[in-house]
Amino acid sequence: MRGVSTDWDNKWYSEVRRGNGRWIVEMAIPFSSMRFKPGAGEWRINFGRNDLKRNESSTWVPVPRNQNISHLAFTGRLIWDSPPGKTGTNISAVPYAISKTEKDYQVGEQASKANFGMDAKIALTSSLSLDLTVNPDFSQVEVDKQVTNLSRFSIYYPEKRNFFIENSDLFSMPGFTKIRPFFSRRIGISGDKPVPIIAGARLNGKINQDWRIGLMNMQTEGVGELNLSPQNYSVAAFQRKMFERSYITGFIVNRQGFKGAEFNPADVNRVAGVDYNLGSNNGRWTGKVFYHHSFGNTISKDQKATALWLVYATPRISLEWNHEYVDSNYNADVGYVLRTGYFRLEPVASYSFFPKSGPLNNHGPELYASLYWDNKQYKAADRLLTLSYDAKFKNTAVAKVFYDENYILLTSPYDPSGLQKTPLAAGSTYYYRDWGAQVFSDFRKTLNGDMLASYGTYFNGTKLTWITNLNFRKQPWGIFTVSIENEHIRLPSPYASSNLVLIGPRIDLSFTRSLFLTTFIQYNTQADNVNINARMQWKFKPMSDIYIVYTDNYDPLKFGVKNRAVVVKISYWLAK
User: Domain coordinates of the chain in residue numbers?
Assistant: First the structure.
């Protein structure tokens, strides 16, 4: 409700001409690439433009400045002289062929293989489509951007595979960021290892003005070396529009394991629930309330998750309230649930001042709190209080200062150095605090970046954090980026101190409008690894590509090769 997705991709055309102090862009999107009701004489539409030079956003229909310009509550009327009719059969298929060679230098094994598969899209109606995939391969997807993990919980990495991204909101939006009953990266990936997907199907779209439906089914192979049995994943969801901008969503997620060729009744997990999403007509009120329940092969208590989130926002004032309750036995195997067995409060309040003159666009304070309790005895578990002050400049630069108060009750042994050394004991409590600053430079400049620095106590020691991101654009053919993160942790004996470093340079080159190269290098002392990933892409026609992907992993001390792979993939778009 707060952002806009840029994941849509289909056949369309564009041309740009640059002149003296001006530019002209022309775009053509075939009706066959869109979903609409044939014969409809009126569409709701808006047009937006970001003028980066002036740091100005303009829209055809006015949108309040505290709302995203893509907000569907603010659209105008497009009235056709001759309404577009039915575009005919809309079927497209993208078959692919792939060849892969890889070698594991640590065990001395080398393998080469070839494969093929296909994705297909069938428009059943103007707003309902069926997506099919057979033996999909995602080796052309760029690697995840690594992070230094000093938390006690797993890291959330975003989905990058197109089959799961497009029209994914029906499946992926139930719950909250840290309480997701369905997370598509659980399908076809185990840790950082790929799991072959045999086939999958997805039906989604609108069946009328008020109802949307979504059905998905995916079947994976078993992987003996990972001790994984074949799995079937199913998701069913519906969405019903309520009032003008609110809607209710119901869903069920099912994971079913196999033993041989039959279902394994002992290997099953299900989650069902309902979400109500609130959106007021003027955009000032947004929110969500949900109730989810998990089921396994046995019936037990304490398997629910519920939460309420409510936001009131004006250009000057923003007030947020969130509370969550997750039972200790709530289990979403195909989801992303950060922790269980807790009750949480998360209020946020901020105020913005808008000067009438000067370099500032707006500035103001924010107070944030995240408070966790054990949901059995309601004993305080974690607490974070943050007071910050932001200043946003007219030239797009941003400056921020903050102060944090932390309280941690360790429920299990934990090594805060990030090195898996001598851990702090379970049941111990820690109070610590830190302060810091973050700045973002004018991102319109050829050279731009951001920097964060913080220092303070950390469990029973101290921590200095320094993160820098630099970007250099060489128009129109290159973007050069480097990210540097350093965590300097000092703990008393017998606990380990550490100096964790993560360096990630990246190069994006556009040789032509259809030939691209992306190179990503990551040096991570916490993972004790150097990763190189290079991807050459030739888009020889719309939605048709040739990829050459090269991946290396090295030991950072000896700089000896751990493993290496080269992939060549070709896909071709067929449409009727």
Answer: 13-79, 127-142+157-299
